[in-house]
Amino acid sequence: MAWFSKKPRIAARQEPTEEQAPSRMQGLWAKCENCDEIIYRQELEKNIMVCPHCEHHHPWPARARLAGLLDPDSFEEFDKELEPQDPLGFSDSKKYKDRLKSTRKSLEENDAFISGVGRIEGHPVSVGCFVFEFMGGSMGSVVGEKVTRVFERAYELKYPAIIFSASGGARMQEGIFSLMQMAKTSAAIGRFRNGNKPYVSVLLHPTTGGVAASFAWLGDIILAEPKALIGFAGPRVIEQTIRQKLPEGFQRSEFLLEHGMIDAIVPRKEMRSRLAQLLRMVG
């Protein structure tokens, strides 16, 4: 048998079949992952990404969240120019620097965290929100720095601090530089508390790993959205480690509220009014 092949190196291009061709309706509809109802996407977005049939909370993009919760035109973004580097020259299935480049291009965000100042019903706040779509909201050096600056800015301006967390944890591509952010952000909260202003931590789905093990759990008031997965290691990892079946709903916000780990579960539609109420009381 010949060691070479006469087959062409470039395969002939095949036109997509009718089944493979993209539909003109693609993107107009969304399927609820909880009740399987098909929802007109525009209706879902108008309902702040909450299913009108079962009230399931779908992911809400960070900028849309900030726009929806803060007073109109009150948000001023800071530190947008900060970009993560590749201190370890890390590479897995793809080089880290290439992964960063492609993610920046597709999301038009420099990293997984947006920070700045704004107002909620007239109350000034130093605020930050995770962009989960950016590498699972993982916390690297830049995310840790921006979180730290949320508290430093709040201390300088004498503002309350609010952070909306949604993260898979520390960013493994930055190794120890990422893990250092857990201590760095926690220390920033310690300095911030000298200003006697509250820190409200809002835990979204999911909040796990190094983010959950540091500043996300250190709020003076800890709120969560319904059915959010919150914890250090995931349920599957814990089950494999202890070789036991976990209780139903383990690590969901309802389970944590029942066991005294969070202060309240606040549906998305009520979040703005609840935050304003807390700021009036303790801000």
Question: Secondary-structure blueprint of this entry?
Answer:
Layout: E1 29-31, E2 38-40, H1 41-46, H2 62-69, E3 76-78, H3 96-107, E4 113-120, E5 123-130, H4 141-157, E6 161-167, H5 175-192, E7 199-208, H6 209-212, E8 221-224, E9 230-231, H7 235-242, H8 253-258, E10 264-265, H9 268-282
Parallel strand pairs: 5-6, 6-7, 7-8, 7-9, 8-10
Antiparallel strand pairs: 1-2, 3-4, 4-5
Describe this structure in words.
With 283 residues, this protein is of the alpha/beta class. The chain has 2 domains: 28-58, no CATH class; 60-282, 2-enoyl-CoA Hydratase, Chain A, domain 1, CATH 3.90.226.10. It has helices at residues 41-46, 62-69, 96-107, 141-157, 175-192, 209-212, 235-242, 253-258, 268-282; strands spanning 29-31, 38-40, 76-78, 113-120, 123-130, 161-167, 199-208, 221-224, 230-231, 264-265. Strands 3, 4, 5, 6, 7, 8, 9 and 10 form an 8-stranded mixed β-sheet that branches. The protein has a two-stranded antiparallel sheet with strand order 1-2. Strand 6 (161-167), helix 5 (175-192) and strand 7 (199-208) form a beta-alpha-beta unit. Helix 4 runs parallel beside helix 5. The longest helix has 18 residues, at 175-192. It catalyses: N(6)-carboxybiotinyl-L-lysyl-[protein] + acetyl-CoA = N(6)-biotinyl-L-lysyl-[protein] + malonyl-CoA. Zn(2+) binds at residues 32, 35, 51, 54. Its cofactor is Zn(2+). Component of the acetyl coenzyme A carboxylase (ACC) complex. Biotin carboxylase (BC) catalyzes the carboxylation of biotin on its carrier protein (BCCP) and then the CO(2) group is transferred by the transcarboxylase to acetyl-CoA to form malonyl-CoA. Residues 1-23 are annotated as: Disordered.
